[in-house]
Amino acid sequence: MLDVLLYTFFGVTGILLIYYFFVFSRFAFSKTLKSKNNALPPVSVIICAKNEAENLKKFLPNIINQEYPNFEIVLINDASYDESLDLMEAFQKKHSNIKIVNVENNEAFWGSKKYALTLGIKASSYDYLLFTDADCMPKSNQWIKEMASQFSNTKSFILGYGAYQKKKFSLLNALIRFETLQTAVQYFSYAKIGNPYMGVGRNLAYKKQDFFKINGFMNHMKIRSGDDDLFINEAATGKQTVIVDSEKSHTISTPSKSFKEWFQQKRRHISTANYYKTKDQFFLGLYYISQFMFWILASILLGLLFQWEIVLIVLSSKLLVQYLVFGFSAKKLKEQDLTFALPFLEIFLIIFQLVIFITNSVSKPNHWK
């Protein structure tokens, strides 16, 4: 039995090394794209807000002050019951490039961000759409240019990085940022090998024509989440997709303040994975299962001191390759501090995701706000 466990451990490690060498390395060792100097298209920046008055007041000026020749800001008030609409109207009086879409509660689409976004997209003036959230701010005043300059006749889906604010000496903050980093490395890497399977609504751009080409969110309108990842999974192709990872293109979001809040947020996000294309579910699932089995088998074999010298060599080799690949990725995305605690954060995240899978199988997560 222990021999079987040992050889299984070898096989699982081999699978993980294949991911590191042939998938994740494609992003880790790729060159960062620079913004192009070609003609910049007019852009509609779309922000959907539900009870986000405080965040709009804090972050919207960073969007307004972007250095870009021609852009509008489409603010979608998704049936807010705070002062969000009043604040939007106050900003609109001062800035002529702000357009407001006020969404009333709709019985058929109650609590659906996708319904609100669809109305905002229809109301937008331009064919090039750039999305972010109300609790996000661009890391620079070149954000729109960094993202929009990558549009071309053949490139119509632009995937960006949405980081979270850093807080010192916070385990929760480290876990949130590590999960965000790992997710970004995955979807950037898969896009690099021609299989874009998701993007994040905090920093995402695409052409309006591609939205209407597949009837927008209609195929998954009743699913609570997925306005970003399910749409990209359905609509984007490798030839049409570009990843933008330059520091000036990043957005920064406010992280969850408690484990409970983060748990509920991730429940919604993870639930959408069940609707990915079958091949994407398989490869993402294989990676997660391999991570889980790697640490379980390593713990058993080392705990029983069975061939512990060999197990340690294999464990160390895997960690060395992982540190190399994720270290370069973290450096590109300005998250280097997370690499020091990589094994601990990975183990905790594996357990955390397992709990979410079990919880989601028992009950469905709530609507987006």
Your description of this structure?
This protein is of the alpha/beta class. It has two domains: 2-28 and 279-361, no CATH class; 43-256, Spore Coat Polysaccharide Biosynthesis Protein SpsA, Chain A, CATH 3.90.550. The protein contains twelve helices and ten strands. It has helices at residues 2-28, 53-64, 84-94, 113-123, 143-148, 171-192, 208-213, 229-235, 259-271, 278-303, 308-332, 342-362; strands at residues 43-49, 71-78, 98-103, 128-133, 136-138, 157-159, 162-164, 204-207, 241-243, 251-253. The protein has a seven-stranded mixed sheet with strand order 3-2-1-4-8-6-9, sandwiched between helices. Strand 1, helix 2 and strand 2 (71-78) form a beta-alpha-beta unit. Helix 1 (2-28) crosses helix 6 and helix 6 (171-192) crosses helix 12 (342-362). The chain is globular. The mean pLDDT is 93.
